[in-house]
Amino acid sequence: MEETHQYTNSLINESSPYLLQHAHNPVDWHPWNEETLALAKKENKLLLISVGYAACHWCHVMEKESFEDTAVAAIMNQNFINVKVDREERPDVDQIYMNAVQLLTGRGGWPLNCVALPDGRPLWGGTYFPKEEWTNALTQLADLYKNEPEKAKDYAAKLTDGIQESGLITLNEKEANFQQEELELAVANWKTTMDFKNGGRKGAPKFPMPGNIMFLLRYAVQNNDTELMDYVNTTLTQMAYGGIFDQLGGGFARYSVDDHWHVPHFEKMLYDNAQMVSLYSKAFLITKDPLYKSVVYETFRFVESELYKDNGAFYSSLDADSYNEEQELEEGAYYVWKKDELENLLQSDFELFSKYYNINAYGKWEDDKYHLIRSTADNEFCKENNIGEDELKKKLGQWRDELSAARNKKDKPRLDDKTLTAWNALMLKGYIDAYMVFNDEDLLKTALKNAHFLINNMVKEDGGLYRNFKNGKSNIEAYLEDYATLIDAFISLYEVTLDESWLKSAKQLTDYSYDHFYDDQSKMFFFTSNKEQGLIARKVETDDNVIPSSNSIMANNLFKLGHYFGNKHYTDNAAIMLNNIKETAISYGSGASNWLNLYSNYLGDYYEVAIVGQDAMSKLKEINQQYIPNKLIVGSTDESDLPLLSYKYNENETTIYICIDGACKLPVTETTEALKQMTSTY
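The chain above was modelled as a monomer; its predicted structure follows.
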């Protein structure tokens, strides 16, 4: 039988799972679009803009407390045009109103709630509000706009000025000059915030921040910084041992609420897991630590089981909440265990299991619930418990099967099954990075399937991109984040396949970005296209966060593409962009780690590794077994018109050229000889 609902609003026509969750609220929600904005102006009503995402726990709490309450809905419907926004589909809208709330309150988060004039200029906002506080604030705002509209407009004008002025990037007209001493200063400043005992940043909550660790890994290797290398390995190990990593199902949760990675907010996001795969793959290449390889493959197992569609697309996230035994939504209900549950399931193995996964004071969460967490390496655990490593491995597999079967009888967390270009591009890069290291052809097959899905479904007729895909449809213009991440992934895909079509697609998307996102004054790129209308500002995103900023990814892309195509405009632009951010990057490295990755490329030699000939692919795989971050790969099994391959092809033998800015050392035929020529790396 079809489910009947007392209320249905305009969100019923949307594809976003988050918006559809609110389609039967008594609140008269509208999506963010031109029609909604026109309606606010026509009725001269304040806009109430509420932003969240499907896996957001506190978004669900506020929905239950306020948006499902008919009395609260009556206040909202009478006085406001209510707009629900999925921040993952519309990061541009989220960006503007998050900026407003941060200026107003000094902090931000989700749910994000903002009240704006009918023209979109914000005047008040915050994050989560308990019901009484929410209704009081809305009543006061409605009275203000009704009785003192000029006062409301004055608030909005001042706040909008602040939004438009905040984060402005001005062109740094000083000559670009990048020094090793400055990079060392950036890392020294950063070290004061590091937790050398548990890894990550000092204190709680703890976010994985894969981009940060990726840069620090590179810096530690290239600068022989053993203290920093120990910190990186501590971070990687403690995250892998922690409850933030699903010890049964694989995959990482968003972050931990404590200082030792134990209890997360349980949502699992595609973008986190994508970048963690890249990070752990690179770390394995350096350390050969089997734990890191295990994390990579366990994460792939999770992603392919829960976030993958057979058409090659990846879904967005799994919710933090699921229904408990009382049929109430509860955060983490799917993942945590009671001691008696485990005893009944594991019987005689419970004692050993409880030692391995800390069913004790260390592993206890709250009430009588435990969340699995490790604290000891397998070889040490085996010595302490007089068990062979093979036997332990066998038991771990049995425990996982038994507990997974029991867990799967519980209500599963809700799936956000929309596909986003940027997040898929990050996952594509994750598969490529893992393939480079592990040479597993299945990883490359999945990568190519996803890449073809993106080309076939996300590229528009005019050469631009869509942001979203659901039920065979796309309807949102992509943002700079989508272009930058996909260009990056396509460059990486070229580097493992030597198929020039991926490199040419990367260049085409780059040129489109110049046409529609470029700011001639700052030489940076706007987050939104020049086709976008309805926003009160165009922002330039430069802060590297959980996902690196779209401008830092784009600057790294331009650096590489400038080398590939001999395009001086690209290479000059990359240096200008980095120069614009240089001061910030040195003083606040953890917010500029991907900029510092680019900075590192300007110190010492940067190698163009050209591999040409029939055996180019096998030589390429050998080169990829060495961690060399200051290089790009260019190659072909036959003639190519790429500038870096001109006059290098010889049908009788495969040769490797190590070049710097197009000037090459003597060609060699063995990868060992080629690696010796890249002396400044090691």
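The longest helix spans residues 568-587.
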